[in-house]
Write a structure and sequence with these properties.
The complex is a heterodimer of chains A (357) and B (143). Chain A has one domain: 3-Layer(aba) Sandwich (Pyruvate Kinase, Chain: A, domain 1). Chain A is built from eight helices and nine strands. In chain A, the strands form two sheets. Chain A has a six-stranded mixed beta sheet with strand order 5-2-1-6-7-8, with helices on both faces. In chain A, β7 and β8 form a beta hairpin. The longest helix of chain A has 75 residues. Chain B is α+β, with helices and mostly antiparallel strands and 143 residues long. The chains are: A alpha/beta (357), B alpha+beta (143).
Chain lengths: 357, 143
């Protein structure tokens, strides 16, 4: 049996750990609040882009009647042979099963599409590390043509899954310009027929108790404003309860913030029942709007994923603090027991010593 | 002059947040093919924006004040009583990072030189240059 001193030392170290996990929980709660605000602030723009595109596609045929061509290559659908998978995971650990759940969903997607060639674009450090361990990176060679221009040409595939790029640190300081760059690279790959479809795997986050892991199709665009969710995993009731408990103790509201009024206002953008003068021809407008639309979908996914990551970390740290408290209780009980046993033993020794005299 | 009843509601929205929302007398917009000014009662219009200044006349600080915003790329919807500007990026003049804009200009010029035959690279370079020049112009005007 451990002695009192050992137990006291152990209690002290667990207490220190509880301090740390409590602090991490509060930090995550604050970051979650900020992430939620950011997601909220980004809503009007996303809604407006969606509504103006909706109204534009309603007024203008997607197929140009004169030439019979599609007005924009992003509307083109091809049989899915080459697929791009964008995995949005976290940059850091200590967030419970957050990262492993995302990766599990991503691996399920890959395992379910073995007949296709899959390119992986990893956003977030954890996802990148895992993907790099499992799958080879895409190789490129430089070629110089007659004019002396240097071109990057992709090598032959080594396996059916290859990592084409990663963006660690993108989520830490989420900037629209970087997300837009990623969106543009995805769009240009789609337009050059390097990929036939693009999917994102991310953790959707409405509020602490309503979130799920989704696989969403980004491209081709079938219908504006309707997310094409091809797979979703809801958390279990027990997990939801746990998250709700953690949120309450950290002072986070559970209900999603009411955005109906602002959304309605935003939805009016570009949809008035009047004949607009279009400064530019529809093709040009679509050319400018569609990349913004794709980028805003990606940005939306990332803001939600960031919020979900902080929520997951907050829940995990709350559990850790609770476990630490339980452990301290158990150790304290044991320590008292050991101390009493020692005292009893000493008394017995004294009494029996006195009796012997 | 504009009175209470015929004022424009102006909104400037970026992907990150709503930057400006208020009634105003008039707005100048940097449309792709040149600047235009919008007053109350303008015909409905949908236009793509280039890089330049959005100038709001008569913002929250009074009817005679002028508020500048440097915007780069976006869209605008004009309705008789409402103007909504969706900008990819918008900055107050004092927020502009001049050294960074100069770097951007240099990068744009470099890209422009190297663009060669590629039309995409050429357009992209021109975009970068236009954006940087607009930022520098706004910053120079202010100081």
């Amino acid at each position: 049996m451990a002695n009192v001193l050992d137990l006291r030392r152990r209690i002290r170290s667990v207490k220190n750990m509880r301090q740390i996990t409590k602090a991490m929980k509060m930090v995550s709660a604050a970051k979650l609040r900020r992430a939620q605000e950011r997601a909220l602030a980004a809503r009007p723009y996303a809604k407006m882009i969606t509504s103006v595109l909706e109204s534009l596609t309603r007024r203008v045929d997607i197929i140009d009647p004169e030439t019979g061509n599609l007005r924009h290559p992003l509307f083109a659908t091809r049989p899915e042979k080459k697929v791009l998978l964008i995995i949005i995971s976290g940059d850091k650990g200590f967030a419970g099963a957050f990262n492993s759940n995302i990766l599990k969903t991503a691996f399920q997607f890959i395992a379910g599409n073995t007949d296709k060639q899959i390119d992986v674009e990893a956003v977030g450090r954890k996802g990148r590390d895992m993907m790099r361990r499992r799958h080879p990176a895409a190789g490129y060679t430089e070629q110089t043509d007659e004019q002396g221009n240097i071109r990057q040409v992709r090598n032959d595939r080594q396996s059916y899954v290859e990592v084409t790029g990663d963006h660690p640190g993108m989520l830490g300081k989420l900037e629209v310009s970087r997300v837009f760059e990623l969106a543009q690279s995805v769009i240009s790959r789609y337009c050059h027929e390097e990929i036939d479809a693009a999917y994102i795997v991310y953790n959707e986050f409405k509020s602490v108790i309503s979130q799920r892991l989704v696989v969403e199709r980004l491209l081709p665009i079938m219908k504006i404003g309707v997310p094409q969710i091809t797979g979703a995993v809801e958390p279990t009731e027990a997990e939801k309860e746990r998250a709700a408990e953690a949120a309450l103790s950290a002072g986070i509201t559970l209900e999603p913030i009411d955005t109906a009024a602002a959304d309605d206002e935003a939805r009016k953008f570009g949809t008035s029942q009047v004949d607009y003068i279009y400064e530019q021809p529809a093709e040009e407008l679509l050319n400018g709007l569609l990349p913004q639309y794709v980028s805003s979908m990606l940005y939306h996914a990332m803001t939600e994923s960031v919020a979900a990551e902080h929520a997951a970390r907050m829940t995990a740290m709350d559990s850790a603090s609770n476990n630490a408290s339980d452990m301290i209780d158990a150790y304290t009980l044991e320590m008292n027991r050991v101390r009493q046993a020692a005292i009893t033993k000493e008394i017995i020794e004294i009494v029996s010593g006195a009796a012997a005299v | 002059m504009a009175d209470e009843s015929n004022q424009l509601r102006v909104r400037l929205v970026t992907p990150e947040r709503t930057l400006f929302e208020h009634v105003a007398g008039a707005v100048e917009l940097p449309a792709k093919n040149g600047y235009m000014e919008v007053l109350y009662g303008h015909a409905p219009l949908l236009a793509e924006l280039g890089a330049g200044d959005v100038i709001v006349h008569g913002g929250p600080d009074g009817p005679d004040t002028v508020t500048h915003y440097n915007v780069s790329w976006g869209f605008t919807e004009v309705l008789p009583d409402r103007v909504t500007i969706l900008a990819s990026d918008a900055l107050r003049p004092e927020e502009i990072d001049v050294p960074r804009a100069e770097q951007q200009l240099d990068r744009g010029l470099e890209e422009w030189k190297q663009a060669g035959e590629s039309e995409d690279a050429y357009t992209e370079a021109l975009r970068v240059i236009a954006e940087a020049e607009a930022k520098l112009a706004t910053a120079a005007e202010k100081h």
